[in-house]
Structures are given as structure tokens and as C-alpha cells.
Amino acid sequence: MVKFAANLTMMFNEVDFLDRFEAAANAGFKGVEYLFPYDYDKTAIADRLMQHGLTQVLHNLPAGDWDAGERGIACHPDRVGEFQDGVDQAIEYAATLGCKQINCLAGIPPADAAPDLVQATLVSNLTYAATRMKRVGVRLLIEPINLRDIPGFYLFHTSQGRAIIEQVSSDNVFLQHDIYHMQIMEGDLIPTMETNMEVIRHIQLADNPGRNEPGTGEINYAQIFAFLDRIGYDGWIGCEYRPLTTTEEGLDWIKPYL
User: Fold this and answer.
1) Inter-residue contact 87 to 133 (CB < 8 Å)
2) CA neighbours closer than 13 Å in the CB half-sphere of residue 44
3) What is the pLDDT of residue 258?
């Protein structure tokens, strides 16, 4: 049966971040994910994971100045050193948290950067990160994101992500498939996942429109979950959605699966 991880960046926002681990466990989740752990002491997070019997499923590489609108620096030719430092920091956190996969946000390319250089920078950075992470048993993921929510984001389509993976000289880089983002950009969800499942190692969900919980929009999640069960998908599904009201009030959709 499919297994779900609470995205603590989006869910349980009514409580402080470190208290969201307990809230997720009380709601029946066995795994958690979130954007970034770097504002918190890694041992404090590890203690919360252990205390509540949770698996740390995923976090992202450092992605630049998030509050200023940056959404990743992996494609920035002038910030390679910063990217590499971020890889080391992410690995340190992953080791303490027992996290086995880290997502890399490609970013929005600088307006004055040559397209060929942007592409080459991204591939080179991913090669570096994938190699470093493989040494410590951590999987690197990349994620296509829709251009409505993040205009100008470099990676926005499944086929583009797969092409980049093929260019990276590593067997340790895979695809994070966000159903919400890809419904907006390409649709045809089940056939696309089935075609690319050999490179998909993590899935995220939200309904569309609104990016709220399943059952609030147009996506037939019952069919998607049945499909994932049928093909034997054994990875996690991260619940990266904004609760329509509160997290607890919007959890009816998941009760049959927990």
C-alpha cells in the first residue's frame, strides 16, 4: 500500500516547526519531509524524529535566499562554490537525520546567463552532488516545477528532467515527480509516471487548482493511488499541499491509507 509523508513546510502551520513532528505522528503519519532544515539544530530535529517514531524522508539542498525569491542556485554559473558548500551542509544534516534522499531545486537562471552555460552548470553541479551523496548512501533528486507558481524556473517538464538525468555522469540522480506541478504542465499523469517510473524515486501530491488536499480539485487521486499500488511503487508520497482549512480538518482523504 502507498505510504505518505507529511510535508511540515505546508502542513500543521498552526504550530511551531519543531512541534509539527508530534502533530504529524498524532495524525497517523510515519514519515515527514520539508523544504529546509538549516534554520534548526540538526540534533534537535533528530530528537523529534526519534521521539515520535518518524522517518525523515526528504529535504532540499540549500536554495539561495528563499525570502528574496530565489528558488535554487544549481543552474547559476557564478555560484558554483556556494552550491558545493550547500551539498556538504545538506549531507551533514542528512547523516544526523537518517535522511536517504535530498532534492535539488534547479533554480531560475540569471537573466544575463547564456543558455548553454546554464545547462552545463546544472549538469556539472548535479554530477558533483550525486557523486558526493553516493559516497554516503544518499540519493539525489531533481524536481520539475510548474511555471505558473515559479515563472522562469529552469526545470519544468518530466521529459526535460529525464534528459538532464541522462546527461549527468552518475547513477545516483533520480526524478522527484510532483503530481500537482505536472498536472499543470503536462497532464496525462498515470501514463507519464508509468513511462518514467524507472527514474522516479519520490512522489509529491496536491490537488489542482488551489494546491489543497486531495478531493478538493480535479485530480482523481483514488485512481493514482490504485495505479501506484498495482505497479508496486514502494517509495514515499509527500503531502505537499496547503490545507483548505486546517490540516486536521482536511485529513479525511488519507484515513483509508494510514
Assistant:
1) yes
2) 9
3) 82
What does 178-237 look like in DSSP terms, one character per residue? EHHHHHHHT--HHHHHHHHTTTEEEEEE--TTTS-STTSSS--HHHHHHHHHHHT--SEE
What percent of the chain is modeled with pLDDT above 90? 98
pLDDT for 100 equals 98
Q: Would residue 194 show up in a list of annotated catalytic residues for this protein? A: no
Closest by CA to 77, choosing from 142, 144, 125, is 125
Q: What cell numbers appear for 217 in the block?
A: 480539485
pLDDT given at position 144: 98
Active site residue: 33, 70, 82, 143, which one? Answer: 143
Q: What is the pLDDT of residues 62-77, one digit of tens each?
A: 999 999 999 999 999 9
Cα R_g (the chain), whole angstroms: 17
Average pLDDT, the chain: 97
Nearest to 130 by CA among 144, 145, 119, 141: 141
CA atoms of 193 and 229, how far apart (whole Å): 13
pLDDT, tens digit, 9 for 90 and up, residues 191-213 = 999 999 999 999 999 999 999 99
The CA dihedral of 10, 11, 16, 21, to the nearest 10 degrees, is -120
223 has a pLDDT exceeding 90: yes
3-state secondary structure of 32: strand
Which domains, and CATH codes, for the chain?
3-257 (3.20.20.150)
Q: Which of 230, 150, 129 is nearest to 121 (CA)?
A: 129
Is 186 annotated in the active site? no
Q: Which of 166, 194, 240, 248 is catalytic?
A: 240
